Amino acid sequence: LTISAVSFSCTAPFVGGVFAATTGGEWFYPILGMIGFSAAFASPFVILAIFPKWMQSLPKSGSWMNIVKVLLGFIELAAAFKFLSNVDLVWEWGLISRPFAIAAWIAIFLLTGLYLIGSYSLKHEKKPKQISTGRMLLAIPFFLFSFYLIPGLLGSSLGFWDAFLPPKQATDVSLVASIGTGASAGASSDVDDGWSKDYQASIEKAKSEGIPVFIDFTGYTCTNCRAMESNVFPLEEVVQRFDQMELVKLYTDGGPNAKENQMLQFELTGNVALPTYAIIDPRSGRVLAQSLGYSDSDDFVVFLDRGLQVHADL
Question: Under a CB-based contact definition with an 8 Å cutoff, are residues 115 and 128 in contact?
Answer without folding.
Answer: no
